[in-house]
Amino acid sequence: MYVVCNDDLDIAIDEFVEEYLQPPDVYMLDKVYFTNWESPDRCSFCGKKPIYLVV
Ligand SMILES: [Zn+2]
After folding, report:
1. How many Å apart are CA 11 and CA 30, to the nearest integer?
2. How far is the CA of 50 from the centre of ligand 1 (A)?
3. pTM higher than 0.70, yes or no?
4. pLDDT tens, position by position, for the chain (55 residues)?
5. CA-CA 20 to 30 A from 43: which of 5, 13, 21, 31?
6. No. of H helices and E strands in the chain?
């Protein structure tokens, strides 16, 4: 699972495909809600405010 900013979305998708050998689902972070999961406030790659959840 990656939480990424706009700039790093492509990188996250590439890494996901490499690791799991299938394309990820991409969600807008502000549109998703999981119980017991608090979304990180930093991009997995650069530390900026994240926009997308890649799972
Ligand atoms: Zn980023």
Report:
1. 20
2. 7
3. yes
4. 999 999 999 999 999 999 999 999 999 998 887 777 787 899 999 999 999 999 9
5. 21
6. 1, 3
